[in-house]
Amino acid sequence: MPEHKELERIASQVRRDVLRMVHGAKGGHPGGALGCAELFVLLYFKVMKHNPAKFSMDGIGEDIFILSNGHISAGLYSTLARAGYFPVKELGTHRKINSRLQGHPTPHAHLEGVRIASGSLGQGLSVGIGAAQAKKLNNDNTNVYVLMGDGEQQEGQVWEAAMYAAHHKVDNLIAFIDYNGQQIDGPLKEVMDLGDLGLKYKAFGWEVIEVIGHEFGVLDDAILEAKKVKGKPTVVLMKTNMGHGVDFMAGTHKWHGVAPNDEELQRALAQLEETLGDY
Amino acid sequence: MKKYTFTEKKDTRSGFGDAMTELGKTNPNVVALCADLTGSLKLEKFQQLYPERFFQVGIAEANMISIAAGLTIGGKIPFTSTFANFSTGRVYDQIRQSVAYSEKNVKICASHAGLTLGEDGATHQILEDLGLMKMLPGMVVINPCDYNQTKAATKAIADYVGPVYLRFGRPAIPVFTEADQKFEIGKAWMVNEGKDVSIFATGHMVWEAIKAGEILAEKGIDAEIINIHTIKPLDEKAILDSVKKTGCAVSAEEHNILGGLGESIARTLGVNLPTPLEMVGTQDTFGESGTPDQLMEKYGLTANHIVAASLKVIERKRK
Ligand SMILES: Cc1ncc(C[n+]2csc(CCOP(=O)(O)OP(=O)(O)O)c2C)c(N)n1
Ligand SMILES: [Mg+2]
Fold first, then answer.
1. Is A155 in Cβ contact with B59 (below 8 Å)?
2. Structural domain B9-174, CATH architecture
3. ipTM, 2 decimals?
4. What is the CATH number of domain B189-318?
């Protein structure tokens, strides 16, 4: 099992990849991808049982990850490549024509590691529930992990899914919310306040765990705790900082959907150690 | 042949946003709704000037459509706004039941339609929206061709009573129609008269059709170019009058050939005056990430593709 120190080194590389990918594409969504780097790395390099060398769509006997907020695809792509799903040099094709690394992930592009299309927000939790129930039918005791945005919680379908998962006791599903308090038009509190999100999930019958999303230790513990919960689904509210890891990108929504220019890229990369070799 | 030139490029969505700012001033019943894409839809000015008539619904498009339907009950004229995919496919039943079937005066305004949305890829590039919307009884479907026409269309639909789908796009494209033009819903615009082939184009493809006309002229072919900005109700008379003259037709749209403008024209021709038709549009496929220009080239939506279709259909007419 990799130590958290080692995971931090991988996360640093993932952040570098994200920045270089969106810079190379002159567009994309760095903010959320930077904010979720720890979760991506923790899941793919420690928590999940999975087989990057031989990707199988049905994922039988493997833990499955579903990215519902598909716009932060750069973070997922980098993590998948670094974990060995496909060659890291392919990261350079992100958002470009004829690429398997589409702006938003899709099985249509046949990229190893991607099992569902996302991008239109609000659908991933339902997909995760379906995948989790298939596992139960298969007597497959692996888990399904779903990541959603906090702005994404405004979609009604999320709550249809939340109700269903509790009703059907889908306890092999662990959902994460990138709780950065930001969406495109501004802070959630101003655009469309979610109120007490934890209490809402509790009222829907979920186990709720709140953690800081940038500390491997607490995030790891939260997942261990979530796995012990039986008879109901668990949601981990990850308090994150959008753009985390780059001082001038952190804590603002400015970098939701904008790529750094040449100078900004250099300033950002200077803050992140190249640990695994840039693609 | 009329020569069209342009001095600037602008996005059609700005035509929408600028018209909304004017409508805010001239029509107190006009209200705008947006689902967390205020900047992309160019509604910041409206929001700033008329905050009490701007409704931010968050990322909840289905809710937005039905709220808009409710607002009409109090006599308001709601303009909903988000990307074209989230304006149509995402909320089809809300539009069908709360708007179309209920005969509500809602204006569904959709940006970033088609391939020219670019790098975000197929999840956001709807190529089926014209079909979805035109199939709804009573729905008016409009896809203007440049900034000025979009602005005029936005103002025109405020005065029309009934549900409307207004489709526009993301990239900056040539502004070649007149400023402050009169926009007549359902009335095709004769871009250029000709006698050898009728080219019917909508949206971003109108500029491509104009360029195609110039290339065809160099080959000695006199193309008639007609802008079908209103896909429904379709100006059947303009279409039939044109093909009576030319004997063959090409349709051009940034949309799937299934269900779009081309099929509406095919039906019109088939029922009234069977005429050879070639369709320029996407070939029953999803889009993908890429720059708008790369995608238009790859998926066959350029002036050269219109030229090739024209040559082919002229050949068919001669047989
Ligand atoms: C159904 C749908 N509506 C609108 C959008 C456009 N959109 C993309 S990201 C985004 C904001 C999402 O906010 P959040 O989930 O908090 O993600 P973050 O900005 O924090 O990464 C919006 C509105 C979309 N992708 N899907
Ligand atoms: Mg957010």
1. yes
2. 3-Layer(aba) Sandwich (3.40)
3. 0.94
4. 3.40.50.920
